[in-house]
Design brief:
Elements lengths: L1 H17 L4 H4 L6 H11 L5 H12 L14 H36 L4 H15 L2 H15 L12 H30 L2 H8 L4 H12 L2 H16 L2 H7 L4 H10 L3 H29 L6
Helix pairs in contact: 1-14, 5-6, 5-8, 5-11, 5-14, 6-8, 7-8, 7-12, 8-10, 8-11, 11-14, 12-13, 13-14
Length: about 290
């Protein structure tokens, strides 16, 4: 985890510096050489690039990312203010993906070869093929512009979460459907399920106690990484719907070449990914006692 975090932040730090000197964005052509040099000292630009990274990493361990070049306030305060919007959107998207994808995957496996099965497979294929930005724009056009049923952007009441959560969770719902269907079919064809049927165990018990529980290890992996991808992958959705979250902040920081905010957001995104991977590994042993490390 430490190695991943260090290399990810180092890469982004170097790439952000390669974009050019940030002083060119914030100082006018009438700036004196003294002011130019003063800004360079304050931002640490007068030191070698590797020294700049080591200095930044040491401060970042205490959540001190520096001062936002655009807002002129602490970068962590800027990031912290955007976290609630992203968490709310991610939670709503996960809720949508779960209530749609899980039942549809189970239904598809149980009703194999039926109309429900073919409909679920079409949804799974189409859902993972549709780009999120295109789906977001279409949802805005249909439900906000044509039908005037839902708001187009920003967060407010519960109705503000409907369109962006569908746009963000649509592909995940399709992924849940495909994974749960595949895992359930494998379990339903196993010998112990056949034996349970021969003993007269009810179909409901076989589906939910034996098949569904044992089929959850694959979706568990997907859901753990899904939570991380929602938080870190809201860039497109938040940009399309104008939601002031971490994704939108990252885009604005790149456009403004705001080094402290860019590197701070990437560090938080990286930490979320590696921590969720660790939690998924731990959850394996909880769900399946046969797994030990």
């Amino acid at each position: 985890m430490i190695v991943v975090v260090v290399f990810a932040t180092l890469f982004v730090f170097l790439m952000s510096r390669a974009a050019g000197d940030p002083r060119t964005l914030y100082l006018s052509e009438y700036t004196t050489q003294a002011d130019w040099d003063k800004w360079g000292e304050e931002m640490g630009l007068d030191k070698p690039i590797f020294v700049q990274y080591i200095t930044w990493l040491g401060k970042a361990m205490t959540l001190e990312f520096g001062t936002s070049l655009r807002d002129q306030i602490d970068a962590f305060d800027v990031i912290k203010a955007r976290i609630p919007a992203t968490l709310k959107l991610s939670g709503a998207a996960l809720f949508f993906a779960t209530i749609v994808g899980v039942p549809l995957g189970v239904l598809s496996a149980v009703r194999r070869g039926s109309v429900w099965d073919y409909a679920a497979r079409i949804f799974s294929l189409g859902g993972q093929s549709v780009p999120g930005f295109w789906l977001g724009i279409m949802l805005i056009m249909v439900f906000a512009v044509w039908l005037e049923l839902l708001p187009t952007s920003r967060l407010g009441g519960p109705d503000h979460y409907i369109l962006p959560s569908i746009a963000l969770g649509w592909s995940s719902a399709a992924g849940f459907t495909r994974l749960i269907r595949s895992a359930m079919l494998e379990i339903l064809d196993s010998e112990y399920v056949v034996l349970a049927r021969a003993k007269g165990v009810s179909n409901r018990v076989i589906i939910w106690k034996h098949a569904f529980r044992n089929a959850m290890i694959v979706p568990l992996t997907f859901s753990g990484l899904l939570i991380a991808s929602y938080i870190t992958g809201t860039v497109v959705t938040e940009t399309v719907f104008g939601i002031p979250g971490l994704g939108r902040l990252a885009v604005d920081a790149v456009f403004n070449n705001d080094f402290p905010v860019i590197t701070g957001v990437v560090l938080i995104f990286t930490l979320i990914y590696v921590v969720m991977n660790l939690l998924v590994d731990i959850a394996y042993a909880v769900v399946d006692p046969r797994i030990r490390y």
